[in-house]
């Protein structure tokens, strides 16, 4: 079993601690949190070993799970990687693209693996439809959240939209050609509502909307491709696949048939992919263990996390140019 330690014992850090403690692929050694009062409380309530310094924790483990505020991701990852430890870094990978690129360089130099916590890749609804998404040409995403003061220190693009950016980049195998975006600050110093239009070189267009001041939560994506429409509800973990094929010569009474102006007839039919319930955070952590043990490529690489961050900042740049 891989020995793992967690940096950061905040809201998400405590979830990681609990799941790593349950995992059959890791041995949870302990955690470090610079807030001594919080660290004492977590250690007392859950029995996890509390380390007194980052260095002490890093020296005791094989894998460092970085669940600290984004501003410290780079420094924590750098210290762990230069000590020869594998790193799991929560999203976004770092505060700047330059920091992310240095993390990639260091990981290669020290021959360690890294994965970024873009957890929606492990959402069961997305996993059920992932192989059915083939060359989408139009994508629409809505990620709306009720107001929560936690996270408002960064633009909504880095807080919420980056999830959808990563998912889109994972299914569109083409370079980004152009980006147009707008953002509005309502109650924060940075945009709380944002919309972006990403155009790819292959002609695909993605329209993304994110808000953290909505009256209800929503996390939906729709993928449109030749002869198919795929809907993924990341929040309620549901999906729908609607396909079209050439209509039979003698359709049944209940067959859904469309006919265009030229007389071409298509039959609409539905697929309901099996959704296998899972814990997405546990899955992302355990697949990282598999990548280390089997010397394979992690599902969400450091490069993936860096590219998502790069596109996020290109979107933010559009706000500042207006």
Automatic annotation (TrEMBL):
Lineage top rank: taxon:
Bacteria
Q: MF terms per GO, please?
A: nucleotide binding
Listed SUPFAM superfamilies:
Glyceraldehyde-3-phosphate dehydrogenase-like, C-terminal domain, NAD(P)-binding Rossmann-fold domains
Q: Where is the Gfo/Idh/MocA-like oxidoreductase N-terminal domain?
A: 2-118
Record Gene3D superfamilies: Dihydrodipicolinate Reductase, domain 2, NAD(P)-binding Rossmann-like Domain
In this chain the GFO/IDH/MocA-like oxidoreductase domain maps to 154-216
InterPro entries recorded = Gfo/Idh/MocA-like_OxRdtase_N, Gfo/Idh/MocA_Oxidoreductases, GFO_IDH_MocA-like_dom, NAD(P)-bd_dom_sf
Name of the protein in its database record:
Oxidoreductase
Q: Which organism is it from?
A: Flavobacterium beibuense F44-8
Its lineage opens with:
Bacteria, Pseudomonadati, Bacteroidota, Flavobacteriia, Flavobacteriales
């Amino acid at each position: 079993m891989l020995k793992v330690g967690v940096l950061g014992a905040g809201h998400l850090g405590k979830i990681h601690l609990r799941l790593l403690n349950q995992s059959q692929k890791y041995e949870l050694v302990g955690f470090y949190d610079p807030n001594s009062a919080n660290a004492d409380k977590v250690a007392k309530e859950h029995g996890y070993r509390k380390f007194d310094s980052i260095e002490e924790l890093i020296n005791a483990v094989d894998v460092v799970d970085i669940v600290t505020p984004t501003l410290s991701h780079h420094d924590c990852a750098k210290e762990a990687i230069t000590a020869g430890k594998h790193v799991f870094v929560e999203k976004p990978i770092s505060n700047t693209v330059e920091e992310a690129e240095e993390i990639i360089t260091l990981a290669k130099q020290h021959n360690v693996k890294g994965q970024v916590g873009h957890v929606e890749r492990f959402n069961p609804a997305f996993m059920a439809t992932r192989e059915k998404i083939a060359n989408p040409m139009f994508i629409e995403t809505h990620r709306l959240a009720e107001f929560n003061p936690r996270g408002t220190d960064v633009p909504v693009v880095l807080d919420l939209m980056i999830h959808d950016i990563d998912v889109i980049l994972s299914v569109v195998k083409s370079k980004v050609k152009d980006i147009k975006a707008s953002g509005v600050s309502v109650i924060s110093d940075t945009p709380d509502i944002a919309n972006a239009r990403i155009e790819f070189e292959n002609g695909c267009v993605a329209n993304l909307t994110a808000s953290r001041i909505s009256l209800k939560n929503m996390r939906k994506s729709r993928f449109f491709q030749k002869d198919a429409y795929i809907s993924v509800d990341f929040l309620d973990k549901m999906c729908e696949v609607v396909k079209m094929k050439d209509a039979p010569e003698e359709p049944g009474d209940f067959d859904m048939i469309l006919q265009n102006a030229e007389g071409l007839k298509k039959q609409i039919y539905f697929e309901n992919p099996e959704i296998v319930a899972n814990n997405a955070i546990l899955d992302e952590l355990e697949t990282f263990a598999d990548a280390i043990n089997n010397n394979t490529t992690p599902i969400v690489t450091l490069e993936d996390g860096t590219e998502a961050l790069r596109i996020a900042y290109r979107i933010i740049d559009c706000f500042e140019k207006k």
